[in-house]
Amino acid sequence: MLASADGGVVLLMTGGRLDALLVEMAGLDAGQTLASWLRDRNPIPVDCAYADLQARDGLTHLDTFVVDTRDTTFTAGGQVNLNNERLDISIIAHPKDPSALVGRSPLHLGGTFNHIETSVHRQGLIRRAGASAALAALASPLTALLPLLEVGTGPEMQYCQGLISRSRDAIQEGDME
Predict the structure, then answer these.
(1) Residue 144 has pLDDT above 50, yes or no
(2) Which of 80, 132, 151, 152 is least enclosed, having the fewest CB within 10 Å?
(3) What residues does each domain of the chain span?
């Protein structure tokens, strides 16, 4: 039945929580992952989660996908094929706080519904490792850490209010496009 799906769905969640360790791991943040693992792992509140999915003949595209927490904002794009039950989605973490030892690169979810495979887009990691090696060779070993630093976007990067307004407007207009 879903293989012939046509139309759109908008999902909005406010509230909820995510495991702090998973949030840091998804951002490939070794420094804060270790800190979360060693200290009390209180869940991180989810300010909002928003998804705008558009389907045609069972092929569903993630037009907009955002999960916003006080620590990190996650965005995603890709598609889910309901005909052959396969997915191809990339998730990007946008940390709001500074950190060291970050290998930030998009995460990839692929495979079938029964066997989802997770991986890291290697190109981003290779670029950071290459920059780190070049700085170590050209300058000093200490400068090799520069590509592994994350300054963060700051807490002012809030998606939720705009997404909630967009959802309410769509409901009032009766138009979910």
Answers:
(1) no
(2) 151
(3) 2-163
Residue type, 31: G
Residue 85, SS3 per DSSP:
coil
Structure tokens at 49: 């989660």
Residue 111 near residue 84 (C-beta atoms within 8 A): no
- 177: which 2 tokens? 């496009």
Q: How far is CA 104 from CA 93, 119, 121, in A?
A: 8, 13, 10
pLDDT at residue 60 is higher than 50: yes
Q: How far apart are CA 106 and CA 98, in angstroms?
A: 18
Structure tokens at 60: 């569903």
CA distances from residue 42 to 19, 48, 92, 154 in whole angstroms, order as listed:
7, 18, 23, 21
Helix (H, G, I), strand (E, B) or coil at 25: helix
Q: What is the pLDDT of residues 6-23, one digit of tens each?
A: 888 888 888 888 877 677
pLDDT for the residue numbered 176: 47
The pLDDT tens digits of the residues spanning 87-141 come to 999 988 887 766 655 656 788 889 999 999 988 766 665 565 555 555 455 555 5
